[in-house]
Structures are given as C-alpha cells and as structure tokens.
C-alpha cells in the first residue's frame, strides 16, 4: 500500500519544465558540489521527500555490489535529483533553500542561474506580505545524530568567558533598538498574587546562551546573533543583570548555569530568566538540544537544574526558561478549514518545612512537540524578535503570560513561502502568581 502511494506521488509531476531541464542539464555539476548523506537527511527532515522515497533511492539492487563507494555516491545523488524534479511546483525553490541551509554555495549558484528570485525570502508574514529580502530556515539539527558525550568546543564564548569569573555583560549591542515603555506603579493582583518585582538593583538576572557555530559548519545558525542582542537590549532597560555567552559546549553550559545560580547575583535577585538558543530535536517523547561541540542534552536535565534542592537561591522566586529551538523535524503545514467554517471565522499562613521539587517555573517553547521553529537569516528567529517587540510594548502593564500569548498570536500569523508556521506554548510548574516586570519603577534598594 505504501509503495503504491509512493508511485502515485511520483505521478504528481508539477515542477516547471525549465527548472526540470536545468537540473538534468547540470546533473554532473550538482553531484560534484553536494554530499548525498547531508542532502537527503535535510530533504527528508523538511518533508520534500519521505523516508520511503529515501529507501527507494538507496535501493540499488544488485547493481550496487559492483560499484565503488564513489560510484555509489554518484548514483545516489543522480537518483536524488531526478526524484526532486518530480516533487511538485515548489520543489525547485525548496531545493534551493536546502542547498543554502547546508552551505552548498556552488550548487546553489547553479540553480540561481535559472531562478534568481528563488534566493529571496521564502517566508511571508500575514502582516507584511510585501517583504522580500531574506530567508527563513529552521532550528532543527541538520545532520545525523551527533555524539552523546560532551567534548570541549574549539569555539570559545564571545560575550563572556565561560571558564572565567562571572561578570555581568555591560558592553553595547548592535541591531534593532527598541524603547521599553516604563511603568508608573508596581502592579499587584488580589486574586493570584504577584511575584515581588520592585527592587532597583536586583530586579532580575538574565542568562543568555546563544549557540551559533557548531563543530559541523553546516549547522551555523545564521541571523541568530541579533536575537541575543535584542534580548540584552530589552532586559537591560527593565533593570536585569545580564550574563551572555555564545557557542558553549555542554560542559561549559552546565558549569556556567551551576555557577550563576549559586552566586550572590542570583541569591539577591527577585527573578531569573534563561534563554537557550540552539538547534533542537525530539527523540521519542524527549526534547533534546545540541551544543557547539555536537553533544546533546535532554531538556528535562536542564529543567531539573532548577529543583529546589539543587537551586536553593531561587526557591519561591519566578524562574522563566525560554526555549525557542525546534522540538522535532516536522514542518507545520497547518490545516485547511472546511469552506463553511472559513465563512464563520474572522481573521494562608500555615507554615511548612518543605517546598515543591519544581515550582515557580514557567517554561516557554517556540513550537509544539514534534514541530520546527523558524529563523530569518537577517532579522533573527521569529519567536525571539516578536517576544522582544511585545516586551518593549507591554512589560510595563501586562503580566508575562499575556506577553507570551500576544507573542504567540503574532508569530502564529507568520508563514514561510511554503505555508509552514509555528505555534508557541508555555507551561507552568507551580507558577501560581503573576509576573509583572515593572520596568523603570522601584520602591526598594
């Protein structure tokens, strides 16, 4: 049955004839400038071909036994490119996006000879359909699973020295500058209560870990530099102490996290925010993240670092963990509404000697389990940039959950060229009070 569906999909030929012929004429050059292993892995991950199609490509029957390894690779690439010509009207542009994301500049240049427009932005925001200047890519791992054990990265941290003393980051930042609206009072809530956020000098600590470069150069997160700078700009105006690091390996990350949460900076603070920006994936039901050395860590292990017994300095204090990476390799195509539905929808005081193991934690994800997130190679990730916009506009008068909902609503109205989208979510672990940041207003120390 699956093979029959496979043959049926092959009949859905929709690529423009000029594109198909250009690929066939330049087959030898495309093979020369690409690697089958990386190319097919990324193509399957993006959904342009299915795992079944991949197996069919790699089935060389008896022919493969009489071929050298180099001949096998050439034959696999030939079958791959032939398959791409049968994958529909958007396959040419999607192939260009794949080549771009993997850094195959020579092969990309060949395709751009026929269709230079394909190198422009393959993402459309419903709020700015006129934009055409950049590309969007996803933050999922782009290669086979990397090694599980951490190793020392050859790429050192740029903002701070991860192996040196803890020093707040106070350097100026580049990129888009936003003005955070200031509060006129300390906000409270009589129903749920609010986390105390009124200190002048200890309002909060922000830990930023932005992993841009990896041991595999093809995984470079282009455009991510601006995300860290945007976060620094916003939280600096709110009054947070900033600790910003780039390109940490797994050992450096956990050592830095432990050192910071054990420090006087965190002991004195009213709140703690961590943003970990990197590639992510989902194995089974487990979210995992990749560090600059190629090693993987379970997201659960990171969350458990904030257990009350391991992180006593943050007991009863709000801890916000922002994870804008992918949680799987599935592109979210959305769902087409039935016609009739489309017509209806417009656009107290009892002492305890114990505390919960995990409490006062808000975990923020840029996508739902199993799905990708998107990053613009010039402007940064959709989620982080829209979060910063919303923080600047509403941190003075709305609690964090409302800011996140507004962020999710804006990001939810963005689409890639292929109609892919993402849905942000957050979950609270004993996060039972409202968190207002109250920028610019303080009543103590």
Which helices and strands occur, and which strands form pairs?
Layout: H1 2-10, H2 17-25, H3 27-32, H4 36-46, H5 51-58, H6 69-84, H7 91-102, H8 105-112, E1 123-125, E2 136-138, E3 204-210, H9 225-238, E4 240-246, H10 250-261, H11 264-268, E5 272-277, E6 280-283, E7 286-290, E8 296-298, H12 299-304, E9 319-323, H13 339-344, E10 361-365, E11 374-376, E12 380-381, H14 382-394, H15 400-411, E13 414-416, E14 425-429
Helix pairs in contact: 4-7, 5-6, 7-8, 9-14, 14-15
Structure description:
The protein is α/β, with parallel strands linked by helices. It has 15 helices and 14 strands. The protein has helices at 2-10, 17-25, 27-32, 36-46, 51-58, 69-84, 91-102, 105-112, 225-238, 250-261, 264-268, 299-304, 339-344, 382-394, 400-411, and strands spanning 123-125, 136-138, 204-210, 240-246, 272-277, 280-283, 286-290, 296-298, 319-323, 361-365, 374-376, 380-381, 414-416, 425-429. Strands 4-3-5-9-10-14 form a six-stranded mixed sheet, covered by helices on one side. Strands 2-11-12 form a three-stranded antiparallel sheet. The longest helix has 16 residues, at 69-84. The relative contact order is 0.14. Residues 5-13, 117-135, 141-158 and 341-351 have low confidence and may be disordered.
């Amino acid at each position: 049955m699956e093979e029959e569906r496979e043959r049926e999909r092959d009949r859905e030929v929709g690529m423009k004839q000029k594109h198909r012929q250009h690929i066939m004429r330049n087959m030898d050059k495309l093979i020369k400038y690409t690697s089958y292993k990386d190319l097919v892995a990324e193509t399957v991950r993006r959904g342009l071909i299915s795992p079944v199609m991949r197996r069919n490509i790699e089935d060389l029957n008896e022919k493969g036994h009489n071929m050298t390894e180099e001949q096998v690779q050439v034959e696999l690439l030939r079958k791959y490119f032939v398959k791409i010509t049968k994958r529909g009207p958007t396959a040419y542009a999607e192939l260009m996006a794949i080549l771009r994301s993997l850094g195959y500049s020579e092969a990309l240049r060949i395709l751009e000879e026929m269709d230079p427009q394909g190198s422009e932005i393959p993402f459309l925001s419903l709020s700015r359909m006129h934009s055409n200047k950049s590309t969007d890519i996803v933050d999922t791992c782009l290669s086979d699973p990397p090694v599980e054990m951490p190793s020392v990265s050859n790429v050192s941290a740029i903002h701070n020295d991860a192996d040196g003393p803890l020093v707040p980051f106070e350097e100026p930042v580049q990129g888009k500058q936003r003005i955070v609206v200031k509060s006129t009072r300390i906000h409270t809530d009589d129903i749920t209560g609010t986390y105390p956020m009124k200190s002048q000098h200890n309002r909060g600590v922000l830990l930023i870990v932005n992993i841009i470069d990896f041991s595999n150069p093809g995984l470079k997160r282009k455009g991510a530099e601006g995300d860290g700078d945007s976060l620094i700009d916003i939280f600096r105006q709110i009054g947070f102490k900033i600790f910003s690091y780039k390109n940490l390996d797994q050992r450096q990350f956990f050592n830095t996290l432990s050192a910071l949460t054990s420090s006087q900076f965190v002991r004195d603070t009213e709140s703690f925010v961590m943003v970990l920006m990197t590639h992510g994936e989902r194995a089974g039901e487990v979210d995992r993240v990749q560090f600059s050395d190629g090693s993987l860590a379970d997201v659960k292990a990171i969350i458990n670092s904030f257990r009350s017994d391991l992180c006593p300095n943050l007991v009863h204090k709000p801890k916000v963990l922002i994870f804008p990476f992918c949680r799987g390799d599935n592109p979210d195509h959305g769902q087409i509404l039935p016609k009739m539905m489309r017509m209806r929808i417009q656009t107290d005081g009892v002492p305890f000697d114990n505390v919960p193991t995990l409490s006062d934690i808000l975990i923020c994800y840029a996508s739902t389990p199993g799905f990708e997130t998107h990053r613009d190679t010039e402007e940064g990730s959709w989620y982080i940039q829209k979060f910063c916009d919303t923080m600047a506009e509403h941190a003075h008068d709305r609690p964090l959950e409302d800011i996140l909902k507004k962020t999710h609503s804006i990001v939810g109205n963005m689409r890639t060229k292929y109609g892919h989208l993402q849905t942000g979510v957050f979950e609270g672990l004993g996060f039972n009070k409202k968190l207002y940041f109250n920028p610019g207003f303080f009543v103590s120390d």
